[in-house]
Amino acid sequence: MTATTKRPTQGTRLPNAFRLGLSQAWLEIKSFSRAKDMVIFTLGLPVMFLLVFGLVFAGTLEGTDVSAGQWFTPGIIAASVLSAGVVNLATSMAIERHDGTLRRLALTPIPITSYLVGKILMTALTALAMTIVLLAVGMGLFDVDLPSDADRWLTFGWVFGLGVMAAAVLGIAVSRLPRTARSASAVFNLPFLGLMFISGVFIEFGALPEWLRTVAGAFPLRWLAAGMRSVFLPDEFERLIEPGGSYRLDIGLIVLSAWVIVGFLVAVLTFRWGRERRG
Amino acid sequence: MHAIEARGVTRRYGEVQALTGVDLDVKNGEVFAVLGPNGAGKTTLVEILEGLRRRDGGSASVLGADPAWASREWRSRIGAVLQVNTQNDELTVGELVRAYARYYPHPLDIDHLLEALDLTAIRDRRIHQLSGGQRRRLDLALGLVGDPELLFLDEPTTGLDPEVRIRIWEFIEGLSEQGTTVLLTTHYMEEAETLADRVAVLVGGRIVTTGAPDELGGSSGVHVSFRLHEPLLTVPLPERLPPMVVRDKDHIEVTTDDPTDVVTRFVLWADANGGELAELQIHQLGLEQFYLELLDHLNDWEEAGV
After folding, report:
1. Of A41, A44, A72, A43, whose CA–CA distance to A56 is shortest?
2. Contacts of A100 in chain B (CB under 8 A)
3. What is the pLDDT of residues B184-204, one digit of tens each?
4. Which CATH architecture best describes the domain B4-215?
């Protein structure tokens, strides 16, 4: 074993931060796709929810011809988009914080931006993969139809985009909370499960008491779910089933944007490589 | 200017004073070892110099900049091997080294680097499949891929078998010949003696001595030992002896820079009291013995509340 020959030192142009972010995302994807059990669990959990709820509750929602499975599909898509950030991303960052990966990176010249861009792109991809799998199951088993008009696709675009952004920045912001790597999954899953039950994912939103609807309205999932229902359910659903006869996507846009901005600020201002490295 | 200049660096964790005013100068191009027992503060010191930890007081300059406020450009000039390193279990050796190479402005040629560290044969192996020695060589590759001017090695061979350790030593010697400055911590005296141009001994958060390995073992370390018989066993020892005198019943051991003086005084003392020194031995201490004696005496002082 002998040391390598030194090459003359060229200029010290540091690599571009965004391009590094892209290659970080590629590393994340490679790592994730090779952990087969992780892939199966991540994509399988929402599908299992959809199958169980869709098959257990037979029949249609009162006054509509929307089947249970058809109604569950957009809500579970919304929950999956959020979980890609506040559960998957947050857990992976909490683990990297505790197993030394982040400290090791802190000693390299990688900019924080590149690391975070990699994580955010990975979150978007996870969310997209879950959405596609859920739609495939929904279309195959529960009469879910892809929207045929541009308006709905546009709605899907901004709901999904804002949802992913909110999920990613919130995931980064809360990733420092668990005190150990082992507790990370529990710390992130409990509040997320609670949020699913009050946000109209499993329980019809209009059936919840008004105060609980108000509480849920402060969080992103309720609006993500409404947005997804507006894309994938027939028009009469809004008038007949939604509280007040409207999805209120205008409020949804404001609430989701607010979460993206607040989450971004918290994520960027509180990010630390280790406990003590500055900048 | 030195590669590393530290003055009066202190650090406290709650009630524990981990570093109490450490001064350190590491010259450009030298291999400098910080030797000390576990818990002496070695890792804290290195992590402060790497910019991973805050210091409470004192000043530090590493490659001309304060590590606490390091820039990307500064980080591209240092390399490091920590005690706990990256996981990235599902990536292969080659993939991770290539990923790290992308962070630096002028990385080394990856094929050459892997070859030099005997990693070529396992470059497609996943990281979770590596043995301890392979893992450590990968850590070295990650620390070196940016072609650093200054390399930090925190206990680079702890827990490795002797064969792997020697190969890593040879590799570090090669780096040093090419002008890379190396700061390494270790609790193996042999490692410091083999690799280092200069050694600082860190005990209880302070540097107790600094010098070339042979100086530390040589000038301040001559070991004098002998046995006493009656009537000397009951007579008080001579006054004004060097501090490092250990008595175990009839056995006396003295560590001193001035063996002639010590031996003369004991011989005169024995003569005056009608006895003689049995089994008199005088020998130069190696760094290892010097270090062990030093630790012993520091413990004694601490117990005595000095």
Report:
1. A72
2. 82, 84-87
3. 998 888 888 889 999 998 888
4. 3-Layer(aba) Sandwich (3.40)
